[in-house]
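Subject: design request, 740 residues
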């Protein structure tokens, strides 16, 4: 929802570029998002060459293609014919996807000795168990009709006892229409004759994650997505699909060799292609290709891809809003990003960044510093003006712009060593990688060097397997390919920035139950006979939701605060007992710091709250919705929960870029928290670009030397002060002396 505001003027046409990956279409690629693919299509259409399908000689371009040898002709393809998203150009077998989903019944039926509706099917969510076996769903009615026709009971007959030909029909379809009695959730019925295409006929188009299917390359186009006549057109000896599979670094070399006749309109397309490829390479994306599916991009990659789509567009008088464009960028790549933003400004646009990177902030034309704190303690403009005036101000950002030496600490001695052997996922080279235990280790390297593949995908997924929670378009779960991992700690936890599992800070930290116990043990509650069960009863009017929904037929539903419980969801009894001037429901609107100060004498309440204050989240509201937290806040809340726990034995904590979205003041606090985890006898690994964090580590491992095929190798390891001659070395050295 929009934030409330009295008036906004002078804004103009606005373009917002955020890190969210809202690019989930299977057909959406790097090429389509950046529009490089469309410009490439125009080049193939206007200056491409084509060989004769009969004799192989190069054809002559005119109003149509003509072979000078055998008089074979063919129409000149328009740019749309080089776009697999166009029906007339897409491969007729895979419809332009490049792959087919092949049914794999062994993924669907995991316990054939059980009945279909009693555990035979793999069902990670509502589908298929709920849809096929729960009354009130169309799938249930179809299965009942199918099983009745073929003489088995889906709730009683073991699947392996159902005849093979009937099992096959269940997968691929019944040749005869079914007479189905449909019953809706309200009990109303109607009979209809339907064709049953089989379970794989139902899920064929949406099982893109391969939960029940195997993905195979389309046998007709061999993954190229286009029809043969359009793949026959070449530029510099390559088809448009072949160019799409090259890394951007390789593609840049090919496009540099392409020349259009002077004055030809294709020069505009060629210039745009070269400009956008050059920008993507400069910001560390030279390892990706145009055919890369958008949904596989990281948040930082997605944002840079979308920014590339603006460059060279010729648009002016725009207001361009960017949310932390430096996220996931190696310091070496930040300058290239700044150059692109400056170019947008110089073309007549207004560029506004929400940013924490001091290198970018000090180069801004105008700075607006918000504060002085976070949450309820913020929201005020504490300083604004050119960087020179901010440096002289008393604001927090001004302090960090003035610079501060960050000397490398005396490194701890490792308690042992883990070793990852034979890691070869993506661009990893398979060399043994040693990681010290009992210390804080920073893993760094330029974008695409293999950091996350090594630590998150290989080490993390091996030691802490991710549980599958959805059946559609899930992320890969298997660990990265490797031989073995030796000498690992007892337990492993990946602390990421997802908000999954965080309903509110209070529920996540287990405070609801503890606070209810404190109130139930009070003299007032005992006198009134109110125990924990009574105090935590839900409001009978809104059923504990805190709001009442009114259906508006053809208009959006209206949600209004429940007047009975005042939006808290608590029953009336909870309001009857007060401690420190507040009833249990009234605590909902207090910050975590305020709750901590009210209940300092109750250890089970204050222990998790003290950890929250230590990580700088005291400003969060007790029952603040989890969806309203930033990724950084969610991650720090998870760290706080770990700090408040009493784990037995060493735990390995893995964090992927924990400084994302954090001001330097927050980064300083984060460093202290990470060292507290280590001081508790644990091992901490951070995948990080931030020089301030790397300087604070006991051990640094740098992968590189570049991204993509030129990365995947450990190029340096040791205490931060001893790292030499790597892409990160200059920035660590600069951090140590505190220069900006």
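Subject: RE: design request

Done. Sequence follows.
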């Amino acid at each position: 929802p929009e934030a409330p505001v009295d008036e906004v003027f002078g804004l103009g046409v606005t373009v917002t570029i955020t890190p969210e990956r809202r690019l989930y279409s299977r057909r959406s690629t790097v090429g389509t998002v950046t529009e490089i693919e469309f410009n490439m299509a125009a080049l193939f259409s206007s200056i491409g060459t084509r060989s004769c399908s009969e004799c192989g000689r190069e054809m002559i371009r005119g109003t149509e293609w003509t072979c000078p040898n055998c008089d074979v002709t063919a129409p000149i393809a328009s740019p749309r014919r080089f776009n697999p998203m166009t029906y007339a150009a897409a491969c007729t077998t895979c419809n332009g996807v490049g792959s087919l989903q092949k049914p794999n019944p062994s993924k669907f039926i995991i316990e054939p000795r059980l009945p279909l509706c009693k555990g035979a099917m793999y069902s990670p969510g509502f589908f298929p168990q709920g849809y096929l076996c729960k009354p009130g769903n169309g799938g249930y009615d179809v299965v009942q009709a199918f099983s009745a026709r073929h003489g088995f009971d889906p709730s009683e007959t073991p699947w392996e006892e159902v005849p093979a030909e009937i099992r096959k029909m269940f997968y691929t379809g019944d040749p005869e229409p079914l007479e189905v009695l449909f019953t809706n959730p309200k009990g109303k019925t109607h009979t209809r004759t339907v064709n049953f295409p089989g379970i794989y006929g139902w899920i064929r188009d949406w099982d893109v994650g391969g939960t029940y299917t195997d993905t195979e390359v389309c046998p007709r186009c061999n993954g190229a997505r286009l029809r043969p006549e359009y793949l026959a057109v070449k530029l510099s000896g390559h088809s448009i699909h072949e160019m799409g599979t090259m890394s951007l670094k390789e593609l840049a070399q090919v496009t540099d060799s392409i020349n259009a006749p002077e004055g030809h309109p294709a020069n505009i397309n060629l210039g745009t292609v070269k400009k956008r490829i050059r920008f993507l390479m400069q910001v560390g994306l030279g390892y990706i290709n145009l055919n890369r599916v958008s949904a596989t991009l990281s948040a930082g990659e997605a944002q840079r891809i979308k920014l590339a789509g603006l460059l060279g567009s010729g648009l002016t008088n725009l207001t361009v809003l960017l949310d932390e464009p430096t996220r996931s960028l190696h310091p070496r790549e930040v300058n290239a990003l700044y150059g692109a933003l400056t170019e947008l400004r110089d073309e007549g646009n207004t560029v506004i960044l929400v940013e924490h990177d001091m290198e970018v902030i000090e180069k801004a034309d105008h700075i607006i510093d918000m504060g002085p704190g976070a949450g309820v303690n913020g929201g005020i403009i504490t300083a604004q003006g050119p960087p020179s005036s901010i440096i002289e101000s008393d604001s927090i950002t001004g302090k960090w712009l003035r610079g501060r030496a960050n000397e490398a600490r005396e490194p701890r001695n490792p308690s042992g060593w883990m070793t990852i052997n034979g890691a070869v996922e993506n661009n990893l080279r398979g060399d043994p990688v040693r990681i010290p235990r009992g210390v804080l280790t920073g893993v760094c390297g330029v974008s695409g060097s293999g950091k996350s593949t090594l630590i998150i995908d290989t080490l993390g997924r091996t030691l802490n397997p991710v549980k599958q929670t959805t059946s559609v378009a899930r992320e890969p779960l298997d660990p990265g390919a490797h031989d073995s991992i030796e000498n690992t700690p007892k337990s492993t936890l990946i602390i990421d920035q997802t908000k999954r599992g965080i309903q509110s800070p209070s529920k996540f930290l287990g405070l609801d139950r503890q606070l209810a116990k404190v109130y139930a043990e009070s003299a007032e509650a005992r006198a009134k006979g109110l125990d924990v069960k009574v105090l935590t009863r839900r409001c009978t009017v809104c059923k504990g939701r805190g709001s009442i929904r009114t259906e508006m037929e053809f208009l959006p539903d209206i949600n209004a605060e429940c007047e009975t419980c005042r939006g808290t969801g608590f029953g009336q009894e909870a309001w009857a007992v007060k401690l420190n001037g507040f009833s249990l429901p009234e605590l909902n609107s207090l910050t975590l710091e305020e709750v901590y100060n009210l209940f300092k004498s109750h250890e089970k309440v204050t222990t998790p709250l003290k950890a929250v204050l230590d990580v700088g989240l005291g400003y969060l509201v007790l029952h603040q919705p989890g969806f309203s937290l930033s990724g950084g806040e969610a991650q720090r809340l998870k760290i706080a929960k770990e700090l408040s726990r009493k784990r037995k034995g060493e735990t390995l904590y893995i964090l992927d870029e924990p400084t994302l979205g954090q001001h330097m003041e927050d980064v300083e606090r984060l460093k202290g928290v990470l060292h507290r985890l280590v001081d508790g006898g644990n091992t901490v690994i951070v995948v990080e670009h931030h020089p301030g964090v790397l300087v604070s580590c006991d051990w640094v491992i740098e992968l590189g030397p570049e991204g993509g095929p030129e990365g995947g190798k450990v190029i340096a390891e040791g205490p931060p002060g001893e790292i030499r001659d790597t892409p990160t070395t200059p920035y660590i050295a600069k951090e140590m002396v505190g220069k900006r």
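Residues 515 and 595 are 10 Å apart (CA to CA).
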